[in-house]
Amino acid sequence: MEKRPDTSVAHEGSQRPKRRRRSTGTYAAADARRAAILEAATSNFARAGYLNSSLAKIAADAGTSATVVVHHFGSKEKLLMAVLEAREERNYVKVHEGVSQDDIREQLRAVLALAAHNLTEPGLIELFAKLSVEAMDPGHPAHVFFTVRNEGAARALAAGLRGALAAGRLKPETDPDQVAREILAVSDGLQVQWAISGGRLDFLADYRAYLDRLTRALTTDGHGLD
């Protein structure tokens, strides 16, 4: 995160007041409180959706007050962004940490496993799908988040595809950037369809079938995910 410059100005002839440093214990307590709030917010948003989740309920579930929640996050809107960012960070770890960067099948199985995990948080999928459409408006508070998220997710997927291409496991004509964007588009599109269907669409089966076809089409051995 870019460090903001210190824009405070001391009057001539005066000394800038010394900042009081918090103890390590205070930092730990604040971090624990933020984590509890994020966990409560994630649970509430996943269960009831953004509009039906109140700061008071989130605060109560986190064992604190709405005033403390606002102190740490600024607003319900910013708290939502923090939840989405934390979810995206967890998703990145699930897909990329410990996964071979030259094994296309291992990478796509991890992507599929993430999709299966996300289905355990249906409220967040619905929220994510709704916000991703609304965020097309540059003035929407989530516009920057989704812009950065889409670019970052596509780059990460493309990096893995390049590793598999360099290892000779993908056909030479494979375009990693194009395929990465396609994988992301299919995932996000199916999530929107799943949300609109009220969960009736078998998102996991459809996504698995797509990834299996993709693997057969791209790999030099022509085999699917299994």
Features:
mainly alpha, 226 residues, Tetracycline Repressor, domain 2, Arc Repressor Mutant, subunit A, elongated
Indicate the mean pLDDT. Answer: 85
Distance N terminus to C terminus? 40 Å
User: What is the radius of gyration computed over CA atoms, rounded to a whole number of angstroms?
Assistant: 22 Å
User: H/E element string?
Assistant: HHHHHHHHH
Give an overview in words.
The structure is a single chain. The chain is elongated. The longest helix has 25 residues, at 24-48. It has two domains: 24-74, Homeodomain-like (Arc Repressor Mutant, subunit A); 80-218, Tetracycline Repressor, domain 2, CATH 1.10.357. By secondary structure, the chain is an all-alpha fold. It has helices at residues 24-48, 55-61, 66-73, 76-96, 104-118, 122-134, 143-166, 176-196, 203-218.
Reconstruct the topology from this structure.
Elements: H1 24-48, H2 55-61, H3 66-73, H4 76-96, H5 104-118, H6 122-134, H7 143-166, H8 176-196, H9 203-218
Helix pairs in contact: 1-2, 1-4, 1-6, 2-3, 4-5, 4-7, 5-9, 6-8, 7-8, 8-9
Offer a concise description of the structure.
This protein is mainly alpha-helical. Helices cover 66% and strands 0% of the residues.
